[in-house]
Amino acid sequence: MSDDFQNEIRCFGVTSSPAFVRQPEGNGVAERAIRTLKEQLLWVRHFATVEELRQALAAFAAKYNASWIRQRHGYRTPDQIRAEQKALETEAATEFKLAA
Question: When comparing pLDDT for 98 and 46, which is higher?
Fold first, then answer.
């Protein structure tokens, strides 16, 4: 079964990237995110068109990023983390002085 999967992703131009050493939980995080998506959206609604599905996925992602508190982010939402990172990037860019 693994060979079939590897051949299929190769056909689509995707390269397999195994988990880092001592970091297998990355797979669990991805699997849990997919399970949440299925339980919260895909298994509870019927979509008449692909466009309707696309809009529902975009709305789900926006709601998830704005409201779901994540323990690994110090009990903050993904949007809060992104805002902090963006502020740090902006701050670092404005403090960078060039020699004339």
Answer: 46
Give the residue numbers spanning the domain of 63.
Answer: 47-81
Q: Look up the pTM and report it.
A: 0.59
Query: What pLDDT is recorded for position 12?
Result: 85
Neighbouring C-beta atoms of residue 79, cutoff 10 Å: 14
Q: Nearest CA to 61 among 85, 36, 43?
A: 36
**Among 95, 68, 65, 96, CA closest to 83:** 65
Kindly state whether residue 77 falls inside one of the protein's structural domains: yes
The pLDDT > 90 percentage for the chain reads 42
Residue 77's nearest CA partner among 93, 61, 97 is 61
